[in-house]
Amino acid sequence: MQKDYDRELAEKYRTLNEAGRLDELMEQAEDDYVVFDHVRKVYHVGEVDIEALADATFRVAKGELAIVVGESGAGKTTLLNILGGMDTLTSGKVLLDGREISSLSMRELTKYRRYDIGFVFQFYNLVQNLTALENVSLATQICSEPLDPAETLRAVGLGDRMYNFPGQLSGGEQQRVAIARALAKNPKLLLCDEPTGALDYNTGKQILQLLQDQAHKSGATVIIITHNKAITPMGDRVISVRSGRVQDVKVNKNPVPVSEIEW
Amino acid sequence: MLRKSTFREIRTSLARYLAIFAIVALGVGFFSGLKDCKESMVSTARRYLDDTNFFDYQILSSYGADDDSVALAESWDGVSGAEGSIQIDVMARSGDGDSRALKAISLPEGINKLRITEGRLPENPEECVVDAYSITDAGFRVGDSIEITDENDKDKRKQFKVKEFKIVGLVNTPIYLDYQRGSTDIGNGSLDTFFFIEKEAFDVDYYTNLYVTLKGDEVSLTEEHEDMLKDQEDNMEALAEAVTDGRRDTAQKDAQDELDEKKQEYEDALEEYNREKADAEKEISDAEDQIESGKRTIASKREEVNTTISDLGSNKKELTDTVTDLEETISELESNKKKLEKGMAEAKAGKKQLEDGISQAKAGKKQLEDGISQAKAGKKQVEDAIAAPRAALQAQLDQVQAALEADPGNTALIEQAETLKAQIAGLDAQVTAVDEQIADLETQLAGVNGQIKGLETELTGVNGTIKELDKNLGKVNDGLAQAKDGKAQAEDGIGKIDDGLKQAEDGLAELDDREADLISSERTLDEKKREAESEFERAEKELDDAKDKLDEAQEKIDDMEEGNSYALSRTENVGYASFDSNSSIVSNIAKIFPLFFFLIAALVCMTTMTRMVDEQRTQIGVLKALGYSNSQIVGKYMFYSGSAAFLGALVGFFAGCKVFPMVIWNAYTMMYDFSHTVDYIINYKLGLAVLAVAMLCSMGATWVSIAADFKVPPAELIRPKTPTAGKRILLERITPLWNRISFLYKVSIRNIFRDKKRFLMMVIGVSGCTALLIAGIGIRATISKVADYQFDEISLYDVTVMFSKNMTEKRQKSFMKEMKEDNDISEENVRFLHRGEVTMTMGGKTTDITCVATEAEGFSDFVDLHHGNEHIDYPGPGEIVIVRKTNHDYGIDVGDEVKLRDGYREMNAKVVGVADNYVYDSIYMTTDTYRQGFGKDPDIKAAYINFEDGTEETAIRNASADAAGYEYTAAAQTNIDVRENVSRMMKSLNAIVYVVILSAALLAFIVLYNLTNINITERIREIATIKVLGFYQIEVSQYVFRENIFLTAVAAIVGIPMGDWLLKFVIDNIVLSMIYFEPRHGPYDIPIAVALTFVFAFLVNIAMQKRLRNVSMTESLKSVE
Asked: What is the ipTM of this complex?
């Protein structure tokens, strides 16, 4: 499902954003596939309250490749955790495909992760003891409508490595496995936390390409979290986070193919 | 800074720190506590034994003992003290009215002193103190009275001066160290309790027991002390014999004295009897003689009297005749007298004439006599004148005659002689002429003399006539007087005869009376004689009886047995022995068990530390990179592991040394009443050793792990350790199977086998716990049920009877007859057999063992010989079956040839079977084997009585009591009692078993907890990942714990043989003199141990749930920490 965003909308976003009129900005997504509404997250560390997210609001439409970008400590990981159902929020509202996540119980959150979310981590987090295929299967095993693990692996270009253990794969290949694992669940949302953080430049590029392809070619909704601003052009929507707030939301009418990005 | 980080480390990983602490504490506590137990128990008992001055030897003699025996013992070599004690079993009625068997003991003075637990000691013979342990069970209370009731026979009652005792206090005595109160020959055979009374309350003059303490400073309940006791055995036996001999001699002497006295009495009596009899006989015969002579006297007297009467009659007649004669004579004499007087006057005139003639004659005579004298004078003159010539002539004649004689023919000579002769004759004729003148004168004189003489004769005649007349006249006068006297006499005589006649007649009458008297006294005498005879007969019989009795008594004294003497050391005191066994069981269990336990603890501690260092790899790298020296970094971890181990060891050691003895002693107070508290022995040497080992394990593991890290450059350390590559496991190659396994299981299985180190650690740790549990439960099954095994499976008989005499067939019959009366018993229920000690030798090993010899047939109803499930046939000729303990202790096995010795007789036998047996050991053979081997018939001095299964206990007990009452029974014992005793003793071991089980459980828990904790920590990212992937809580748990359970299962399986081995090892180390333990599991032991392991695993999993829930997805995913 291809989505186009016009510049006016982007312009409006920026204007609204600059003017602080975020409420209006909120209404600017074509559909409310992902809704982050005034989310606030405070961590209690001893006596100290740390406000990881002060007031974050954004939306992502279905099939978009959104990139959340920010400095270390800006709150982007918290944002991802909340979105991924791994963490709860202090106040505000989060919706995925019209379903409110912020009000879910722990068990419902687990269910949410189980059926709706696919994760790709910086350090792949593969189970070392399982082959590539098995790592994928580990996820599909618990889903209601999974894709075929082998197919998925072939799709990410690991058709001939599926019986290898993670230890036998390169970092890039491992991350592909991780992506395959996330995709095979057929999730509503693919969340990627610094997917290239542990990879070299070229491998990173390949991975990003793979993710872009997932959104643009396979129609998956993908959110990538990164500190690397250089890769923002590849996203359909770029959400800049700083000090727990969404500072800017940009919509790329024509995202750049990864191969064209240099950093 | 580093120190801060160390403490922070401890705080943040408190669970791990505590785990190390706990496991070290548990390991150390268990190890040292259990090791300490025996010392504590022994010390407690030792203190009690020393305080009460427990005896070393007990001298028993069938003759008892007395003060002399005590003195003898006191002066005996090696003896430091001796004391006599009176112990008598009596029946008494308890407060609840039951009849109880009690033992009365004289209050001890210096040996086996009492410990008062309540009240006070008796102050007079009417008071007593009672055993504190059993008083309640026996139904008495302080303040009650113990009365020697009438149930006791007379003799028993006689042994007590006092018959009722007031209980004034409760005591403990060392002679009954444990709960066992022993058996007795009264009541139902078991003693209910015992009480102490003053010696004065007894009425016996001997001691039943003699207690002896020995010199030497060996400490009680040590091997040295036991060796000393053994060394003294011969000496003590000698003492026992000396005591017995002394007592026997005294008894014999006393008896002999008494008998001699009796004998003397008898002799006296006999003598008196004889004397009396003789007297009586003499008296009777005298009386008879008297009567006889009386009769004779009477007869002769009667005859005499009759003679006298007739004599008197004739005398009287004679006298009367005499009187008549005399009267005639008198008149004759009167006339004669007149004639004589006339003659007289005529004679007298003649006489006058004659006297005148005589005077004239006499004057003529005178003249003549003068002429004669003149003539005679002339003669003289002549004679004088011729004398000389005559002599010369004569001499000449003589010469001639001599020559003539030489020459008779010489006529000259003859003429000469004639001449001479004529000259001589001429001379002689002158003389003759004178002589003729003289003769003439003389003839004239003779005429005159004749004249005179005639006249004088005439005168003499006349005088004679006158004299005769005078004489006649006198005679007539005399005759007259005589006749008159005679007459008067005769008349007197007649009067006397008349008197005599009268007397004689009186005498006759008297004789008649006397005869009548004699006849009556003769009758009386006869009666008396008969009487005396019967009396003497009786007396004689009595004397004969007395003699027989005396002879019998003498025989008895002469045959007075040597007497049996025993010297029993304290090790043969039931309480002492049971304590010794129990404490050695405890120490034997403590031998290997805690070590195993400790090893597991050490292992787990090491694993934990290794893991920790592995986890801290990055931090170590950072610290190194920051420039901290190796020693500083090592110090940090060393401190961590060392302090945990140190604290753990410290706490464990002290807690263990306190808790274990306390708990175990607490259980043993069920058996031992003498102390409610146990001595806590702190063995510092052990403590230091354990502390050192604990710290070495923990710190050593740390050191080794860190040392490995130091070889790696810091840069690499900082980077996460390259994850171990996944590997296919063997199972996967079995594709059909592998494919069937659910995916998640595949994960688990592969995880399990991926980390071999963890796998081993887990399996060793957990299987160790399973093994401990199996062994712990197994010990219980093995030990506490040993009696059940013995009496349910092997010794099927119910009563053992020992006889004092060889049971001949006749006696067997009499025994059976007696038994059959009250009991439902037939011949098949009773087996008479030989049971005796023999010495068995094989290959230089020697042991004394009970030898059972009986017929093979039917014996399996009494004793079931088997080895495991395999039945053993009763041995054939020349064969024996031994029991397991013999096999175990002496290595004698099937096929071996052993030498058996009974006294001086020897035989060889072949071992054909090793039978299961737990309590007491013996060998089995047939009577024939015995007879042929030893060359003599076996003594049948034992019997087994077997009842139908399900016979009431009381019936068995009654039968046992009946058997005990048989005259030749020495002892009868029910297996119920043996079983109860053994069971009870063994049951107190439950405490130690529960301690072991509990400790094993705790250890299992800690090991599992620790390993699971490590597992989780190690795999936190994986767990976080799957959580993120949306695994439900339960799925996450299963994901992790499936492995745990699987590992637990593997460990449990591995643990079963290990536990089996451990049990065997522990049991093998428990060597008791009379009991053999065969390692044995109860039917549910292994399932229970395995189940317990699983229960612990589940408990750990539940405890770990929280930790899993708390695994933060977000934190753990960020990066490698």
From this structure: 0.84
pTM: 0.61
Residues of A with CB below 8 A from B1031's CB? 110, 114, 142
Q: With DSSP H G I counted as helix, E B as strand and the rest as coil, what are the percentages for chain B, rounded to 5?
A: 65, 15, 20
Question: Within a 10 A sphere around the Cβ of B240, how many other Cβ atoms?
Answer: 26
What average pLDDT is seen over chain B?
83
Any B CB within 8 A of A140 CB: no
- Would you place residue A3 in the very low, low, confident or very high pLDDT band (cuts 50, 70, 90)? very low
Give B668 to chain A, closest Cα distance, Å. Answer: 54
For chain A, say whether B737 makes contact (Cβ under 8 Å).
Answer: no
Residue B666: how many other CB atoms lie within 10 Å:
13
Residue B906: both structure tokens together: 């020897």
Here the tokens at position B95 are 């407060």
CB contact at 8 A, B786 and B919: yes
A115 touches chain B (CB under 8 A): yes
| Superfamily name and number for A7-41+50-253 | P-loop containing nucleotide triphosphate hydrolases (3.40.50.300)
Residue A139 CB neighbours (<10 A): 27
Question: How many A×B Cβ pairs under 8 Å?
Answer: 92
Strand partners, B102: B90, B193
User: Do the Cβ atoms of B114 and B108 come closer than 8 Å?
Assistant: yes
CA B908 to chain centre: 35
CA atoms within 13 A on the CB side of B75: 7
Greatest CA separation found in chain A?
54
Report pLDDT digits (tens) over B405-427. 887 777 888 888 888 888 888 88
Residue B532 structure tokens: 């005396």
**How far apart (Å, rounded) are the C-alpha atoms in residues B1060 and B770?**
10
pLDDT in tens, B649-670: 999 899 888 888 888 887 777 7
DSSP B1068-1111: HH---SSB-------TTHHHHHHHHHHHHHHHHHHHHHHHHHH-
Percent above pLDDT 90 for chain B: 6
Cβ distance of B1028 and A84 shorter than 8 Å: yes
Residue B868 sits at the chain A interface (C-beta within 8 Å): no
Secondary structure element (H or E) that encloses residue B700, with its range:
helix B684-710
**Cα nearest neighbour of A110 on chain B:** B1030
Q: Where are the domains of chain A?
A: 7-41+50-253
> What pairing do the DSSP bridges indicate for beta strands B87-93 and B79-85?
unpaired
Structure tokens at B695: 């710290």
**Three-state SS at B492:** helix
Apex A191 CA angle, A187 and A196, nearest 5: 130
Q: Is A193 on the interface with B (CB under 8 A)?
A: yes
B-chain CB neighbours of A129 within 8 Å are 726, 747, 750-751, 754
Token pair 């745990």 is found at B1044
pLDDT 10s digits, B520-573: 888 888 888 888 888 888 888 888 888 888 888 888 877 777 777 888 888 878
Chain A interface includes B1030 (CB < 8 A): yes
Establish if B1120 touches chain A: CB-CB under 8 angstroms: yes
Cβ <8 Å between A141 and B743? yes
Which chain B residues are within 8 Å of A87, Cβ to Cβ? 1114
Whether chain B has a CB inside 8 Å of the CB on A166: the answer is: yes
What span, in angstroms and rounded, lies between the C-alpha atoms of B723 and B354?
A: 224
Residue B80 CB burial class (10 angstroms; 0-12, 13-18, ≥19): middle
DSSP one-letter code for B791:
I
Q: Measured between CB atoms, which of A107, A112, A121 is closest to B1117?
A: A121
Contact B187, B148 (CB under 8 A): no
Give the β-pairing of A91-96 and A99-100. Answer: antiparallel
